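DinB family protein: structure tokens wanted.
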Amino acid sequence: MLTARPASGTYVPYFLNYISRVPEGAEPLDLLRQQPAELRALIGNLSEEQALTSYAPGKWTIKQMLLHMIDTERIFAYRALRIARGDQQPLPGFDENAYAEESGADGRTLADLFEEYDAVRQASLTLFRSFSPDMLDRSGTASNNPLTVRALLFVLPGHEAHHMHILRERYLPLLG
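Answer:
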């Protein structure tokens, strides 16, 4: 059964950038299952030195971007869990640049980062599969904005698709 797209107003407008990357008629859980192979095909065979590439001064390295994707998925899954369980406490935002700076990603191996990525992805898949249709439509507040579990289900694969696009367009051309 196809998961209905989130309605406008059930997420901050900024998230439309991610939600729109989930093709019409696509099942977001299927995309979450497919993306690990796509990401590995894209950057899994880079050398450790290549994975330290940044496309411009002050921009993240490939390793930092990968860990940003992991951190963001963890945070969004946590938000989904809290909202699905009926928690109405406003959830704080996070500073992605401060997280990347403090992550230590560049000192880790790609293999280690992918091991963490796989664990987080499996946990996200298990969590989102557990949600009933009613839970998907529960709403909470994150970063001072309304947000539903359904919106988060679409944001997760859309966020990753966004970053894979950036990898293809800005990083990989520098590596030949």
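The mean pLDDT is 97. The two ends are 41 Å apart (CA to CA).

Cheers.
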